[in-house]
Amino acid sequence: MAIQLIRDNRFGAFFWTQFLGAFNDNLLKFAVTLAVTYNDALRGSFSPGLLINLIAALFILPFVIFSATSGQLADKFDKTKVMRLAKWLEPPIVIITALGFLMNSVELLILAVFLLGTQSAFFGPAKYAYLPEQLKSSELVMGNALVESATFMAILLGTIAAGSLMSQDAGNVVVYVVCGFGFLVALLGVYQSQRMPLTPSHSPDLKVNWNLFTETWRNVRFATGLPKVWPALLGISWLWFVGATYLTQFPLLSKTLLNASPGVATVLLFAFTVGLGIGAFLCEKWSRKRIEMGLVLCGLAVMVVAGVLLHFVLHAYETSASQQTVFVFFSQFNNLAVLGLFVLISVGVGLYSVPLYATMQAFAPRESRSRVVSANNIINSFFMVVSAGFAIAILLGTQGAVMWVFTAVTAINVVVLGLWIVKQPYVMLRTQLLFKVPAKHLPRIENLEHLGEAGGNLIVFPTLLHENYLLRMAGLPMEMTVVLSGRLKPSRFVNQMRKHGFVLEFSKLSEIDTQKELIKAIALHIQEGKSIAIDKPMFELLRKQYRLDDMPGVLAKKGVVMNVLEFSEENNKENLKKSEISHTVWRLNKKEVLTASGV
């Protein structure tokens, strides 16, 4: 499926545009980072730790400043055209970087990094809003896994290219090779962006607010009002805090504690990016090709365990008296332990990231999806800028002991894991369902486009019995209350679902009082903007006896939106090999219901 998706022009051209842009960002940014770390003449009186984290902060700052404006532009205009325009900014930025190296000017190099961040800030909202517009719901997880993995591979290749050239003390080779190659990559990225299919706007009448401060605040406030999306945005922001902190400290870790060459810093980045790619593809596999928030807790748990082990390995590490080359680095067991733990941490990051991005894209309102992404970028940027200040503070407090930066991140990861469990019980439920419901029994979901629409949802399944209620909950990747006609056998798991309102049990649905209680429960869930699932027989009973078709109209008079989403099931026996399982296909259709008349 991955190769077919890349060959498909609606995704393939975007894939290469994104890949080339990420490659160039990291080629240039890492070349500048290594230059200020190892070139004393270029750095002047500034400490390497200060400049490394300052560069990281200035690359992120444009996301805080410009994301609100770029999100509006991506919603108002064709998203493809916005990305094409952003790509045209890349070649001039490469030229500014080259001038910074030629003139030995740290100020010009820092300006170039800031401009790289600015170009990415205008590319980002359109990028993430483009995917759900061009991909089917069943392709969204794979598309995100490919984009995440390609981004990490681009980071890897860009940093390897920069690291291998910067490790050579060859003067203007950096300018002629690094920047010359970067310029060609920028032009190739412009060409690929021209091949992307157009993505018409859903809000062409949107009036752009050019006030950066008020629009930034309005974007963030809008995102906080989306209960299905806001937790994912916060989760993504923490991901970037962790990622930025780790990646930024690798050159300093290599130079100080490991006493290693710049090539070793590249090796550490290699380990981290490979792990991220592995984690992203494991997420696609273990999520059963659907949005699976349960993997968020799995990813965090992996990060915590590996982070604790990393602390003990680094604490016991004996710094070499002479600088380690890459070859010497690989010959020491303690170095391999450090490398392996960074891979394991990044696998956790990959597992953690993909479901969060897929959730943001799938559940954000279509007409304002780019602004939701811009709000995400704003919050991400804030967390990343804070991560730079966080690292600087720890380095100053520990007199440059970079080990404590990694340890502090692990300690906060423990807190974040606890917050997810306590504040988002639905995510904990999804994690449990991963182990309780075998993948071979899960259906394939089609037509999930309605899940991001505003309002509460009444979801109608053809059957919803005690024997398969867990399958229903695991099959549909959204928080909902399942109505059961009967009582479940008590257990710790069942009690937990009752406590958090994931199941409603009615033992006597044939009685009028019970039916009225169910009607009230449906109305209450819809008014609170939640989702509630019933079976087809219940739905038909309530339609006939209580005019359920009138409920959307009645609630609309109160300003409440009610969606009736009905599933149909069919066996998927087309194009299957003998080794494959015939999965049931669930097709979700938005039911056209009658408006209230005479009510």
**What share of the residues lie within helices?**
55-70%
The number of distinct helices, counting runs of at least 4 residues, comes to 23
Work out the radius of gyration.
26 Å
Low-confidence parts lasting 5 or more residues at pLDDT below 50? 575-582, 593-599
Instruction: State the separation between the terminal residues, measured CA to CA.
Output: 51 Å
Return the string of H and E elements.
Answer: HHHHHHHHHHHHHHHHHHEEHEHEHEHHEE
**Fraction in beta strands:** 5-15%
Mean pLDDT: 81
Total strand segments: 7
By secondary-structure content and strand pairing, the structural class works out as alpha/beta
Shape: globular
Largest pleated sheet: 7 strands, mixed
**Biggest sheet strand line-up:** 1-7-6-2-5-3-4
Transmembrane segments: 50-73, 93-117, 145-167, 173-191, 229-248, 260-283, 295-317, 337-358, 378-396, 402-422
Domain Major facilitator superfamily (MFS) profile: 10-425
Subcellular location: Cell membrane
Membrane topology: Multi-pass membrane protein
Can you walk through the features of this model?
It is found in: Cell membrane. Keywords: Cell membrane, Membrane, Transmembrane, Transmembrane helix, Transport. It is a multi-pass membrane protein. The chain has 599 residues and is α/β, with parallel strands linked by helices. The chain has helices spanning 2-7, 9-38, 40-43, 48-76, 79-87, 90-102, 106-134, 140-166, 173-195, 212-224, 230-255, 262-286, 294-315, 326-330, 333-363, 369-397, 403-423, 425-436, 469-475, 492-499, 512-527, 536-546, 551-556; strands at 444-446, 456-461, 481-484, 503-505, 531-535, 562-571, 584-590. Helix 20 links the parallel strand 3 and strand 4. Helix 5 packs antiparallel against helix 9, helix 10 crosses helix 16 (369-397) and helix 13 (294-315) runs antiparallel to helix 15. The chain is globular and about 85 Å long. The two termini are 51 Å apart. Mean pLDDT is 81; it is low at 575-582 and 593-599.
